[in-house]
Amino acid sequence: MNIKLLGRLTVAWLAMSGFSGSFAADPLNVTGDKFRQLEELLPTPNSYRTASGAPGHAYWQQQADYDIKVSLDDDKQLITASETITYTNNSPDTLRYLWVQLDQNRFKPNSSGNLARPVNLEAIAPDTIPFNSFRHAVVSGEFPGGYQITKVVDTRGRELRHTIVDTGMRIDLPQPLASGSSVSFQIGWAYKVVEQKVLGGRSGFEYFKRDDNYLYEIAQWFPRMAAYNDVSGWQNKQFLGSGEFALEFGNYRVAIEVPADHIVAATGVLQNPRDVLTSKQRERLRKARIANKPVMIVTKDEALENEKSRSTERKTWVFEAENVRDFSWASSRKFLWDAQGYKKGGTDTMAMSFYPEEGTPLWDKYSTESIIHTIDVYNRYSFDYPYPVSISVNGPVGGMEYPMITFNGPRPEIDEEDRSKRTYSRRTKYGLISVIIHEVGHNYYPMIINSDERQWTWMDEGLNTFVQFLAEQEWEEKYPSRRGDARKIVEYMKSENQVPIMTNSESVLQLGNNAYGKPATALNILRESIMGRELFDFAFREYAQRWKFKRPMPADFFRTMEDASGMDLDWFWRGWFYTTDNVDISLDAVHHYTVGTQNPEVEGPWKRAQHEREPETITVIENRARKLTRIVDGKPELEDFYNKHDEFDVSNADRNSYRSKLEDLEDWEKDLLRVESNVYVLDFSNIGGLVMPLFLRLEYEDGSVEDLRIPAEIWTRNAKKTSKMLVRDKSKVLKSVVLDPHWETADVNVENNFYPRRIIKSRLELFKDEKQRNLMKDWDVELKEAG
Amino acid sequence: MKVLFSFLLVVTTSVIALQANAHRYHFGLTSLSVNERTQTLEISHRFFVADIEKALSISAGKELNEAQQQMENYVNSRFQVSQKNGDVLNLNWVGMEADVHDIWIYQEVPLVDLSSKKLSIKQSMLMEIERDQVNTITVNNSSENQSYTLKSGESRVEFSL
After folding, report:
1. What's the helix, strand, coil split of chain B in %, to 5?
2. CATH label of the domain that carries residue A704
3. A786 partner at 20 to 30 Å CA-CA among A117, A122, A130, A291?
């Protein structure tokens, strides 16, 4: 038997709005069943990668070890070098040739990257071009960039057949390389370092006219092994500029010969400090290791003195690095150098910063502290930082990461008439701290959790930007994070011409929002609103633990997060990573019901009361006003039984029927009929496409407030419309409902989140209101630095 | 055909990294929204403060008030809304505000000024600075959202409100 709910009072029907054609595009055609399992989209698990998202029992990866000798010509900005690569084939396959990456070839005048660059002749007016664009076009067409490969030989000096294909080189092996065996070969090369501020890129030199000095940030500087793996085979997609790198782990020994007055920072540990550092510097380094604030290894005065030097001597700095996927370095006679040791858990490292005096007073205050803060926070969310150094260098590159060393751009402003006058804006300060956290954070993703950047930008940028947000929020209260909070991504989510996060790096539109902002925000929503911090943090750390020093793929991340948390998150990955749908959930209607007791003694009077509550018809009102006389008034004999009893009167037949029905009921069913609760049914529709949990704030007439969190699974049967029934005590009369009161789902339209509806002012209106109160803000108030 | 230099940019003394490095990308968002309550077409532009500073050759630390007129001229020269008959609409300058990362610029026009719902806009802000500048336009009225992506060479779009 069913309980009949009587719609005794329909509180409100709200008009549905914004319903026409605003479902976002779904290029992978997975609309419909939002909870459909991902099995058909993800690769089939195998012995290399398990269904739980962990490396399988037969997981393998290649090893590439390097021994490099390099010389820097400071007069010509020229790199000359040679290397021995030892490549170990751990794959089950036999390799007949090897692929080597020649990233510098992107700067060859006829590289694919240069040739495929579009030009725009309508910048200011038709047929005009800005000076800078034109300079770039002219210089990139003339600059003799790219590698000059001087030799490719085996260990006995015999030429190896090789073919250069733009930014790649295939080396044909005289004997196929069997599974489990190694091969060594040598490559010699030279290239002209690019001026970073003219030709861009992730490395290059900066020239300081005032003191006639160069500062070098050197990366993508040696022919290095392309990745070979179980998913892609050789990852030999060309380097066009956006999709970054796919690399193998290995051990490095690098000898860097530079002018004797240069200071060198590099991936790895310096092997010959006695040859290149003064005894004073070595002593300071020892002190720095146990210091609780940064210690100057090269002071400002020493650096300013060094700037004037023009040594013709040469010195060789030797570095070794174990288990890194890349190697990078920086060199200049302008460097100040500070350092501070950090030891905690499994981490024992030297945080160090190298910067020209133009970086003070900002770098000396914040750089090394930011490195240590990053390691402290990231260790908790992933694993203990395993490398012996972590370096931040200031130079021309705005922000770029390499193992153990990062390049970071922001500097204070210098008054050229009085160089001691230096200021930096709020934006520069937080820009520097944020970029250091971000780049140092890249040591975890992807330098150690070695995802394939050329294929999937989000796997390193998205995950790293998410942990960056956590680290920023631990720096100070209200830290101005650019990405992380759900409300910051709303405008992007609302825009329609997007591509899914699961898109190859080179094809991504709006890289910043797509590969950094959206995945970072999605993970933050997952953590705060869907999984909860404990479950999320455990699973997210498990992913890091499983894949450190290995190469994860997207499915490994998705699967691990589910495997370690016990939550089916396929709907979330499907919606946020495979579609461009957005969140727009509308609270359409709130219905109020009470229980129909079926007792005629209760229901009859109630129905009558309902009837009497209806307004009188206009005819009745007019007739009464005009004192209409009716025929029965004069002839009472015309009245009978029906004039004394109306349809609401309870008859004995009704009573008997009720009793016999009641006898058929179980006791628990009888109890339910006596429930006097308020029953509310809330109707929701899904306009944006993404299914999300329903976060509700219910406010009652008695002033009490109830927060209710309904899981996303409420949408399983119907992803477009759903309703939720709430049974509340007789005393709880609903006054208002707010959907997503904390803006935690990135709902792109909050106007339909209220019962009763509220007027939401536009940002422009709010701005006008504020302006009228004369509270115009300054955008960047200068921060005056003492001294 | 001769390629002329745009002299407006000669004053841009700050050095510009043309190649977006690993963590730079150039993106702006312009929203046009019909506000039925106030009977206006509201326009808001959101850009990165750093990019705007480059475009105006101003430095961080300069106050918003001082840059107001310069900004208005810049926006008017690079963002235009045209009616069906080709007339360029006169947009009212509302103002601008900014936080550490982003700047918002506001303009509006009364709905009565529109002769029809068909409009064409040109949004080429910052395209002269960054060759990979992407300006996204969203158009919102009470029943639907439209969105367009403008890049250099394709900085104009026609739509119906």
Report:
1. 20, 40, 40
2. 2.60.40
3. A291
Strand order in the sheet with B40-48: B92-98, B102-110, B40-48, B27-35, B134-140, B145-151
What is residue A433's DSSP assignment? H
Q: How far is CA A666 from CA A1, A343, A500, A599, in A?
A: 10, 70, 55, 16
Q: What is the mean pLDDT of residues B16-40?
A: 69
Task: Give the pLDDT band of residue B6 (cuts 50, 70, 90).
Answer: very low
State which residues form the domain around B135: 23-160
Q: What is the mean pLDDT of residues A78-93?
A: 98
Within a domain: A30: no
Q: What is the domain extent for residue A703?
A: 5-23+584-589+675-772
Residue B7 falls within a domain, yes or no?
Answer: no
Q: For residue A745, which phi and psi values (nearest 5 degrees)? A: -110, 0
Residues with Cβ within 8 Å of A178's Cβ and at least 6 positions away in sequence, in order, are A89, A94
Whether residue A361 has a cis bond before it, omega within 30° of 0: yes
Nearest CB to B6; choose among A125, A198, A423? A125
CA distance A91 to A652: 89
Cross-sheet strand order for the sheet of A721-728: A5-13, A585-595, A678-686, A721-728
End residue of a domain, out of A657, A673, A689: A673
Radius of gyration of chain A (CA): 35
Q: Shortest Cα distance from A399 to chain B (angstroms)? A: 6
| Band (A765; pLDDT cuts 50, 70, 90) | confident
Q: Does A495 sit within 8 Å of B144, measured CB to CB?
A: no
Task: Detail the DSSP E strand segments found in chain B.
Answer: 4-5, 27-35, 40-48, 79-82, 92-98, 102-110, 118-123, 134-140, 145-151, 156-160
Is residue A39 in a domain? no
User: In whole numbers, what is the pLDDT of chain A averaged over residues?
Assistant: 90
- Do A230 and A332 share a domain, yes or no? yes
Q: Structure tokens of A407?
A: 């390049």
User: How far is it, in rounded angstroms, from Cα A345 to Cα A375?
Assistant: 11
Conformation bin of residue A515: beta by default, left when phi > 0, alpha when psi is -120 to 50: alpha
Q: Determine whether the interchain pair B19/A136 forms a contact, defined as Cβ–Cβ distance below 8 Å.
A: yes
Do residue A398 and residue A301 come from a single domain? Answer: yes
Domain count of chain B? 1
Residues A11 and A82 in one domain: no
Choose the mutation target among B100, B126, B160 for the interface with A, i.e. most A CBs under 10 Å.
B100
Chains A, B: CB contacts under 8 A, how many?
210
* In a shared domain, residues A353 and A251: yes
Of the candidates A769, A750, A747, the one whose C-alpha atom is nearest the C-alpha of residue A759 is A750
Q: Is residue B18 part of a domain?
A: no
Report, as an integer, the average pLDDT of B61-71. Answer: 70
User: What pLDDT shows up at residue B8?
Assistant: 32
Q: Are the beta carbons of B145 and A494 separated by less than 8 Å?
A: yes
Residues A153 and A301 in one domain: yes
- Domain count along chain A: 3
Q: Model confidence over A636-694: pLDDT tens digits? A: 899 888 888 888 888 888 888 888 888 888 888 888 888 888 899 999 999 999 999 99
Arithmetic mean of pLDDT, A139-145: 80
A130 with B27: Cβ contact below 8 A: no
Domain annotation covers residue B16: no
Q: Are A208 and A396 within 8 A, CB to CB? A: no
Residues of B in contact with A129 (CB under 8 A): 3-6
The answer to whether the Cβ–Cβ distance between A767 and B94 falls below 8 Å is: yes
Nearest Cα to Cα of residue A63 among A98, A90, A83 = A90
Same domain membership, residue A408 and residue A333: yes
Torsion sign (Cα): A400, A406, A409, A410 = positive
